[in-house]
Amino acid sequence: MEDIVKYDNVKDMTTDEYFGGNQFSIDAFNKKYALHEGETYVQAIKRVCDYIASAEKTEEQRRYWSERWFDEIFNDWWHPAGSIMQGADSGRKISMCNCTTISLGAISDDEEWDNLESIIRNVAYTTAKTAAYRQGLGIDFSRLRPAGTKVLNSANESSGAVHWMKFIDSIGYYVGQKGRIPAMLFSINCSHPDVIDFVTAKADYTKIQNANISVQCTDEFYEAVDKNKEWALKFDVPAIKRGQRVYLDVHSTDKSCHFDREKKKFYRVATHDRKAEHFEKKLPAAELMELIARCMHKHAEPGIQNIDIARRCSNSDYVYDPEDEYDSRIISTNACCAIGNTKIMTSEGWLTIEEIYKRYCDGNKSLLAMSYNIADKRYELKPILNAWQQRNDPTVELLIEENGKQYKLEVSADHNIMTRNRGYVEAASLTAEDDIMIFS
């Protein structure tokens, strides 16, 4: 521990000095993460390390971890996520988790999630609270019955999973404070009967506009595509007998529910019979894969979650213990974008993405955008095939110098940036040695 950087030795370092005069980083810290005016980045590191280390049992452990983390962060080995930087020891209701996944029963086969209690009381409320506490969030809707299946209320038929996505998506606009709309990612399994409606959702600007969307693709689906097989889109609504115990998540209960002490789970008693229903339709697997690719190319969505690969290679799934109260298995993954005030050269001059989006939605389809033709190695104006609105979190900020001018760019960490020396590189992997292509 003798060679580590300690706070007392660098406590007088200014934010400007720490970031080497990088105004973009300085502004981002001061505007987003400084606890109070005048707090330096070094002081913020100390605040975060002390606060998180306070969970340790002994003073020796608290001091050890605080000093170790301070040294690692100061030396740029890693940095805390935005919510931790902003929330640690702030006295405000800010989560220490930057992102979370809200369960909609994706790995709870013994519980019923396809009901109003689970959607409204559980998911909608948790979405609002999560967003209010500054978290990004993801939800997999694969457990909701597809459009056209029967429901025993005045609606007669379910409106489907995408219908409920629109409702959950809208919550972010009401909860978002000072223009900070929470980042959301919605997913659905590739075998869900509503997957086609889901894949094409971004073509309709009235549906899902805040959340990114991704299809959960399985190994079985890829094999069916590779061998040109038929692919079954299917969903089963299990039968229920009157008087049967129907188990629910703890957050989906109401005053009519009971607690099973043996299973340690809540349940309601069914008041009527429900017939089993099997919903299935088939299509060529390659046809679905092509539809995903075409929509991805045209609208930049949906993304793909290689869910089987993620679970197979995940540390958290590896240590999963069914006897443990905490379920560590992967439910879904995340997605990428550029922010709305990013400027693009067009046939009408420099316009922000937000302005391009507004013009496109207003019917202006003649606008051209500057593009780089990799094959011909030249810039050219190309038609804007579509414009879409989406959010993602966290972002990284780039300071780029070209021909004596400085440019600032804020994008998601996994946004691909074209460089002269390495081709496309994810924003978070760029270094000072990279030569980013700038049209000027």
Shape: globular
Per CATH, the class of the largest domain reads Alpha Beta
Question: Which ranges are low-confidence, i.e. pLDDT below 50, for 5 or more consecutive residues?
Answer: none
Q: How many structural domains can be distinguished in the coordinates?
A: 3
User: Which strand order spans the largest sheet, edge to edge or round the barrel?
Assistant: 1-2-3-4-10
Count of DSSP-assigned helices? 14
Largest sheet descriptor: 5 strands, parallel
Distance between the termini: 49 Å
Question: Helix content range of the residues, please?
Answer: 25-40%
CATH architectural label of the largest domain: Alpha-Beta Barrel
Number of strands: 18
Mean pLDDT across residues: 82
Structural class by sheet pairing and helices: alpha/beta
Indicate the proportion of strand residues: 15-25%
**Fold-level CATH name of the largest domain:** Anaerobic Ribonucleotide-triphosphate Reductase Large Chain
| Radius of gyration over C-alpha positions, nearest whole angstrom | 25 Å
Q: What are the key terms here?
A:
440 residues, 3-stranded antiparallel sheet, Anaerobic Ribonucleotide-triphosphate Reductase Large Chain, 14 helices, 5-stranded parallel sheet, 18 strands, 3 domains, globular, alpha/beta, Endonuclease - Pi-scei, Chain A, domain 1
Explain this structure.
- Strand 2 (136-140), helix 8 and strand 3 (184-189) form a beta-alpha-beta unit.
- The strands form seven sheets. This protein has a five-stranded parallel sheet with strand order 1-2-3-4-10.
- Helix 4 runs antiparallel to helix 5, helix 7 (116-132) runs parallel beside helix 8 and helix 10 (219-226) crosses helix 11.
- Helices cover 30% and strands 22% of the residues.
- The longest helix has 17 residues, at 116-132.
- It has three domains: 7-87, no CATH class; 99-318, Anaerobic Ribonucleotide-triphosphate Reductase Large Chain (Alpha-Beta Barrel); 343-429, Endonuclease - Pi-scei, Chain A, domain 1, CATH 2.170.16.
- The relative contact order is 0.09.
- With 440 residues, the chain is of the alpha/beta class.
- It has helices at 7-10, 15-18, 23-33, 41-53, 59-74, 82-87, 116-132, 161-175, 195-199, 219-226, 285-299, 307-313, 315-318, 353-361, and strands at residues 99-102, 136-140, 184-189, 212-217, 230-237, 245-248, 258-260, 265-269, 277-284, 303-306, 343-346, 349-352, 368-373, 378-383, 395-402, 405-412, 416-419, 423-426.
